[in-house]
Amino acid sequence: MSDVSFNPEDLPKAYTSESAYKKVTKYHEAARAMYGLDYDPMTDNIDVCLVMCLGKGKQHGRYWMANSVIDSATTPTLS
């Protein structure tokens, strides 16, 4: 067993930028609203449609978040 404990207040320090933290938080809140409080972004798959909606499509040729893990060949467009 590890002596490391989870403290949500430490989350902003764990991200490389405040922007990344805000995006992950917004995605997490939207996913929990859609799938319920049991949704866990650490273990559940990324909802590509939700990423598309939150980011209003593929801005500047990139997804709003998780660009490198989303397969654009199988992702539907907003239209």
Number of domains: 1
Radius of gyration: 14 Å
Uncertain regions spanning at least 5 consecutive residues: none
What's the tally of helices?
3
Number of strands: 0
- What is the 3D shape? globular
Helices and strands, with pairings:
Elements: H1 11-14, H2 18-35, H3 48-54
Report on the structure:
The chain has 79 residues and is an all-alpha fold. It has one domain (14-69). Helix content is 37%, strand content 0%.
List keywords for this structure.
37% helix; 79 residues; mainly alpha
Give a brief rundown of this model.
The chain has one domain (14-69).
